[in-house]
Amino acid sequence: MCGIFGYIGKKENAPDMVLEGLKTLEYRGYDSWGIAWIKENKIEVVKNTGKIADAKGIQLPPANSAFGHTRWATHGGVTLANAHPHLSRDCTLALIHNGIIENYSEIKKELIEKGHTFLSETDSEVALHLTEEYYKNSDSLLEALHKSFSRFEGLNAIIVMDAKTKKFAAVKNGSPLVVGKGKDGNYLASDAHAVLPYTQDVYFMEDEDYILVDDKSVSVYDGSLSKKSIQYTQLDWKPDLVSKGMYPHFMIKEIHDQVDVLERIIQKKDSEIHVLSEEIKKSFGTYFVGCGTAAYAALAGTYLFSKIAKYHVNFTVGSEFGFLADFLTDKSLVVALSQSGETVDVIESVKKAKEKKARIASLVNVLGSTLNRESDVSILLSAGIEKAVVSTKAFTAKLAHLILIAYDLSGNIEVGRKYLRLARDSTKEILTTKNLKIISRLAKTLSAKEHIYVIGRGLSYPIALETALKIKEASYIHAEGFAAGELKHGVIALIEKDTPCISFVPLDETHGSNLAGAMELKARGGKIIGISPQKHDIFDIHLPYTDASVASVIPSVIIGQLLGYYLALEKNVDPDMPRNLAKSVTVK
Ligand code: F6R
């Protein structure tokens, strides 16, 4: 949460570069934004509330060092004063921050007693004043930052700009920060892909790393300020992976990307899948953990493993994992699922599991992310960069991997590949213009509804939950997913005449009982939208897809994603940046 981008070097257009960098990171937070740059021996700042994409005609001066921030508000409302960067009174220090300083209020009191005046309600401004206070009595910016950061509780990334020494000092604990080493200068960013237009050499900062950057060099120090050597990773990503191309939104581009993503996963070598199946075989108990969409993929995994591999897997959402972790042992395996690899509740779960000496595996999309680095075994999802806040291709990439791993465990990985090929072909058919028109027409008729219910059984249950989530976040319509069999235990009381009810009816063992659930809804006036390979009289509207056996979860959820997307368009919501959300949830 919160996007950070900084440049210091020979180029004269640092503020403009930062503006562009922030635009690529805006999915991390879009409440407000701000940029600071050094002009002679002082720092100047521009700030604004709202999305950076909406800020037109900004004229920024030339400068060769600048940094900026896009905010996802935690402490303090969405106001200009609360926007970052925060600037010291004498305009020589500026600070940007991602995270939460949990003990900020006691430190703030202490600083007020010392005469500091605060202009914002943020915890971040406390970091600025405390660092400034320590810097008064030290000639080392890094030492001052070290002293202040050591007092903070919580997970944070902080960068301080110093106009006197023309340096940036940075530190992180939990929240991500990446250093990019370019030919003409150095970069700092919250996500590696933001620096791709300038360099492919990046250093993923470790927790408790302190960094000092100027126009020529980058120095890294450990938590006791002893110098460390720096190993850059060479990224082989292409900058054009980050563009929307011919599509109006990243969400629809990423929905279309899924055909290629599936192909890449089908092409993976057996050995790339074996690493995780071998860990599962060795363990005494495997536990899946994830949040939001990743949690629904994990839940789907429990069904897939039971059905295909006859393995029992436990599952819980990241925010609850800590309360269920007491029984973990050194023989347990925790498999964390995450697109970003930075979701704080997942990272905390992994830390808890490590305390219990459990092995850690992950299915993660972002190379170099905390989860990717903290895992004993990590499979990269190969979904490509996912920018829309509403996750789509990372979900199906997780499902595809889980299908392959489950078949690998049962000794039939080729069968898994065969079904994924069917799912890829079925997805291609769904994405034809004719089908897209049908789904967008349906969205028109649903857009005035207040509630939508989504039901499924077995493997379709997590798909129902995920479809409801797509509709909620993309269109703000209240949508709820339920296990079809649970309806009669209360939920059915909510069904009135014409209530839209989306029913997943795959051709598996749940077919008959799913139809029965839909009939119960129809008998109470529900309008049934059947997502199924087969037409049925009970459906008021039928959205078909070609059956892909167990991999039908993929085409069926893609229909749910498309419905979410077209509902967003009908409701005039930007599906790439829905209100109150951010792509990477790095705060509790
Ligand atoms: C929903 C969505 C979120 C994320 C969740 C976990 O569309 O994007 O629910 O799935 O915040 O994020 P990752 O997968 O990055 O751990």
TrEMBL record:
CDD domains: GFAT, SIS_GlmS_GlmD_1, SIS_GlmS_GlmD_2. Residues 2-216 form the Glutamine amidotransferase type-2 domain. GO terms for molecular function: carbohydrate derivative binding; glutamine-fructose-6-phosphate transaminase (isomerizing) activity. Keywords: Aminotransferase, Glutamine amidotransferase, Repeat, Transferase. Pfam families: GATase_6 (PF13522), SIS (PF01380). Residues 276-420, 442-578 form the SIS domain. It catalyses: D-fructose 6-phosphate + L-glutamine = D-glucosamine 6-phosphate + L-glutamate. GO terms for biological process: fructose 6-phosphate metabolic process; protein N-linked glycosylation; UDP-N-acetylglucosamine metabolic process. InterPro entries: GATase_2_dom (IPR017932), GFAT (IPR005855), GFAT_N (IPR047084), GlmS/AgaS_SIS (IPR035466), GlmS/FrlB_SIS (IPR035490), Ntn_hydrolases_N (IPR029055), SIS_dom (IPR001347), SIS_dom_sf (IPR046348). Its EC number is 2.6.1.16. SUPFAM superfamilies: N-terminal nucleophile aminohydrolases (Ntn hydrolases), SIS domain. This is Glutamine--fructose-6-phosphate aminotransferase [isomerizing].
